[in-house]
Amino acid sequence: DTARFQAAVDTLVARHPMLRTVFPAGARPAVQQELPPSLRLPVDFEALTGPDQLEDRVAAERARRFEPWAWPLLRLRVLTLAPDD
Prior knowledge:
By secondary structure, this protein is of the alpha+beta class. It has a single domain, classed as 2-Layer Sandwich (Chloramphenicol Acetyltransferase), CATH 3.30.559.10. The strands form 2 sheets. The protein has a two-stranded antiparallel ribbon. Strands 3-4 form a two-stranded parallel sheet. β3, α2 and β4 form a beta-alpha-beta unit.
């Protein structure tokens, strides 16, 4: 159930400040900035058509960068395959 999963993630983000922390660009010395607990970390859900598509999605995720000054510093993507794949 995607709504329940998203709700669980929202609870975790609200409960744990480190999940909503960024490191502002140019700050010297480097400092962390805690963002409000009301932030929502979107979870991407995607049903895939086969193992080849899964490999493509995993490779694309690996290539994506994180910018330490921009929230979120984590991403959640749930990829599902058919039971026979």
